[in-house]
Amino acid sequence: MTVTVDTAAPVDAATSADPASELINAMAAMPAGHPSRPGLRDRAIEAWLPLARHLANRYANRGEPRDDLHQVAIMGLIKAVDRFDAERGVDFAGFAVPTIVGELKRHFRDKTWSIRVPRRLQELRLAITGANNTLSNTLGRSPTVADIATHLGISEDEVIEGLEGARAYNATSLSTPITEGGTELGDTLGGEDAGYGHAELRITLGPAMAGLDEREQKIVSLRFYDNLTQQQIAEQIGISQMHVSRLLTKALTKLRRRLDGATV
């Protein structure tokens, strides 16, 4: 996302508040279709850029590039300029600040979470972060959970929930090296153990096998446990290979029915 605004002659917020206000008020009073309005709009945006940058800098050092935050703040400024209505009795700064800050907060809420969490927890994290910064200055120490809960007017359980949810803000890549030998975090994760499935199958198969007659049990065992071919089974039992095939098919049908919970 890139917003281009002419900043060749940036205006200092401390010395240009009145001219900047005059520009925005003049633009707001001008009819939408007036040919001079687009140029006046660009000048108003340029005049208020220092405010947008100032608000963006308040959110720096939180893991997002400063230039990206400036762009987000400028987007908020443009929205404020386009939506400002002088007849509401609110000066532009009072309208623009919450608009720009809201845009910055939405950026952090929607773009910077590694794992999606409910919006309520995202907003709670921001509130807790703000309370922590405020209380650290006023108390001269790191605030406790009880301090933050009292400051925000919420329960300690809600503060803890917000702190737990904040863990989703940053995630560690599975490719992160954890040893000098090159072992990565993903290498330490367990995989699916087929042994559990085999053990469960054997437990289930035991009663089902007991429902077969002696010859059927022997044929199934020779085929699937000893891995003999039908011809080898036929030679060992003394019957034809075709007969072995019929008996094996019959036995497997019985097993399937028992394993599905049906009675034979």
UniProtKB/TrEMBL annotation:
It holds the Pfam family Sigma70_r2. InterPro entries: RNA_pol_sigma-70_dom (IPR014284), RNA_pol_sigma-B/F/G (IPR014322), RNA_pol_sigma70 (IPR000943), RNA_pol_sigma70_r2 (IPR007627), RNA_pol_sigma70_r3 (IPR007624), RNA_pol_sigma70_r4 (IPR007630), RNA_pol_sigma_r2 (IPR013325), RNA_pol_sigma_r3/r4-like (IPR013324). Residues 45-113, 124-192, 208-256 form the RNA polymerase sigma-70 region domain. The keyword DNA-binding applies. CDD domains: Sigma70_r4. Keywords: DNA-binding, Sigma factor, Transcription, Transcription regulation. Signal peptide: none annotated. NCBIfam families: SigBFG, sigma70-ECF. This is RNA polymerase sigma-B factor.
